[in-house]
Write a structure and sequence with these properties.
CATH architecture: 3-Layer(aba) Sandwich
Shape: globular
Number of helices: 5
CATH superfamily: Response regulator
Strand order of the largest sheet: 2-1-3-4-5
Number of strands: 5
Order of helices and strands: EHEHEHEHEH
Distance between the termini: 20 Å
Amino acid sequence: MHHAPDLLLIEDDAAAARMVEEAVREVKPVPSMVHVASAEAALAYLERFPDHPPRLILLDLQLPSMSGMELLERLKAHSHHRLIPVVILSLSDLSGDILSSYDHQASGYLHKPATFPKLILMLQALSDFWFQTVRLVNDRSM
């Protein structure tokens, strides 16, 4: 039996992904998380578990082969995936990337913090908002 994760992290940089995974363990309550390293792996994961989508996708823009922006576009065009909130987590602070992300229906845009403690604070705020406060379409309580 597969349980839907709270968070699907799409990040190709292994060190960055490990840092997010370690920071997520500091969040209370600890969200469940699945990590994939490419847009293609993310699509394969979502197709493999269509009835158990993640509650939130955390997406890096700089991905190999298919970019994060292309993936965002594909997710939002897909009838089954379009309702999953996607929050961009990027090193880019370019206004063009931010605008384009919202233009492609991202639910939020986060600039990767420079320090581990700031990452924990950001992920705690993300968790508090998306998993404790907001009602989501795919909430288990519905």
